[in-house]
Amino acid sequence: MSTLLEIRGIETGYGRIKILHDVTLDNASGNIGLFGPNGHGKTTLLRCVSGLLRAWHGEIRFDGQVITNLPPRRIVERGLIHVSQGNRLFPDLTIRETLRLGAFPRRARAQEAQNIERVAALFPKLRERWSQRVRTLSGGERQMVSIAVALMSEPRLLILDEPTLGLAPRIKDELCDAIKLISQAGVKLVVVEQDVEFLLDLADHLYLINHGEVAAEVRPGDSMNHEAIMEMYFGRQTSALT
Amino acid sequence: MSTIVDIVMSGLFQGSLYAMIAVGLALVWTTIGVFNFAHGVLMTVGAYIAWQLASSDALGLPIFIALPIALLASAAIGLLMQAAIVRPFIGRPDVVLLAVITTLAAASIFENGTLLIWGPRPMQLPPLAAGTVKIMGIGISAHQLIIILVTPVILAALWFFLTRMRLGLALRAVAQNEDACHLVGLNVAALYGLAFGLAAALAGLAGIFLGGFTFMSPTMGSEPLSKALVVVIFGGLGTIAGPIFAAYIIAFFEAISIYFIGFYWTPALLFAVLILTLMLKPEGLFSRRSRSLA
Ligand SMILES: Nc1ncnc2c1ncn2[C@@H]1O[C@H](COP(=O)(O)OP(=O)(O)OP(=O)(O)O)[C@@H](O)[C@H]1O
Ligand SMILES: [Mg+2]
């Protein structure tokens, strides 16, 4: 089985400051989990994958085809959908209008009605608020809308950048269940999370991003216990498990 | 009685013109976040192109063929203008100021270009329809009546487009969160072009409306633009409904004032309204926070 997303030797950054040094993730099987200290380049990597940030070097392939530095809309058209960290979405549009925009990609339009139903079933809370403006939603509701919009675009691979950031435990569990259902429906995931339990629950193959590099990985079948990961996190024996 | 009909007709006619102009300004402001000082010359250019196509001294096409061609040409000019003088600065922190300078420069270039090509002599565009219609004892030109009736239809169509159609939603979204637009697969640069092109076509239409009513000159756009400025400050640029209502209110105010106070003092009164608005409700003007359409 070849992997859906392959990242090889990516270097990028902002202005002249290099953030990512030669990041390679090309052996993942199943859902990918990324973790690591704040500010070490996880979001930067995802922005590069979805075309928001130019790669200076390296290659990104989606389903075998090179997508490096394509315009974001070309990447979206192929079914690689990125739910960005802390997305404010469109404050003055309603939930309903926002979801319609999610169905903008041509390949998603035919399924729009069907996807609306799917999304409403997945997040019943949103259905009650169809014509509420996004700016007035709570953080949890907004996060649900962000994921719902992504589902409207018919994702084959869904990138979730800290989907539970700043949310209370109950909402977090709800969101986690919803994401699991999405994964079970056949959508591959790339998830960034600070909450290790959450990550272990969703991802099969974990990568630790440290100082703009892959510092360690946990393959499916490796003993993924909490302590080992915490150790990696705090950098005591970062290569112990690789 | 005839006085009232006179005032109402004048208010409706001027209101239609102001609304058509102000909506274009609001469209550009809410999507791209800049104020287009070349909006007035886009009116002028639209009217002159229509003249070139329709006048019996030029090509002599029927006005209903000349009109859509002139609107397409206006849209194309707006699109090119956006690509040349606005898009290069999008994303820079000083884009608002730069756009003031570049659109003012474009206004001057187009005004003088019109002067060079068509000369200073006032010209008249064939009206949309000939003849006059009598309404409650008052004669009004068929041209004006068409404008009064057609403008609300066009504005309603624009409202429908911006609030009910996916592409219209995309135009509203692009102002609110550019990254999120990229991530739902929108072509952001094309949407900026579309906003400017659509605004230019609306300006061109206003120019054609005006050109069939009064004489055309290379500076014909500047006076309506200054009125539209009063309108958008009064109504706020943040929404599409705001400038429309404001356009009719200002036009009625103007018509009443012209009748009772006279031509001479009316502009001064309008600017008093503008200054009062700025003193009492200044946040409407150029406030990025309130940028949203519909
Ligand atoms: N637009 C930007 N311009 C300049 N530097 C940036 C920009 N965005 C991020 N950075 C820098 O890039 C580095 C990596 O940031 P990034 O957002 O990728 O980290 P992260 O791993 O996602 O962190 P977190 O877990 O806090 O989300 C940080 O030092 C950050 O300050
Ligand atoms: Mg991040």
UniProtKB/TrEMBL annotation, chain A:
Residue ranges of every copy of the ABC transporter domain listed in the record: 5-236
InterPro entries linked to this entry: AAA+_ATPase, ABC_transporter-like_ATP-bd, ABC_transporter-like_CS, BCAA_Transport_ATP-bd_LivF, P-loop_NTPase
Superkingdom of the source species: Bacteria
UniProt keyword annotations, A-Z: Amino-acid transport, ATP-binding, Nucleotide-binding, Transport
PROSITE patterns the UniProt entry points to: ABC_TRANSPORTER_1 (PS00211), ABC_TRANSPORTER_2 (PS50893)
CDD domains tied to this protein: ABC_TM1139_LivF_branched
GO biological process terms on file: L-amino acid transport
Gene3D superfamilies cross-referenced by the UniProt entry: P-loop containing nucleotide triphosphate hydrolases
Family: Belongs to the ABC transporter superfamily.
SMART domains: AAA
Protein name: ABC transporter ATP-binding protein
Source organism (scientific name): Acidisoma cellulosilyticum
A GO molecular-function descriptor: branched-chain amino acid transmembrane transporter activity
Residue spans crossing the bilayer: none
TrEMBL record, chain B:
Spans traversing the lipid bilayer: 18-51, 63-85, 97-119, 140-162, 192-216, 228-250, 256-280
Alphabetized UniProt keyword annotations: Amino-acid transport, Cell membrane, Membrane, Transmembrane, Transmembrane helix, Transport
Pfam families reported for this sequence: BPD_transp_2
Cellular component annotations (GO), alphabetically ordered: plasma membrane
Chief localization: membrane
GO MF annotation list: transmembrane transporter activity
Compartmental location: Cell membrane
Protein name: Branched-chain amino acid ABC transporter permease
Species per Swiss-Prot/TrEMBL record: Acidisoma cellulosilyticum
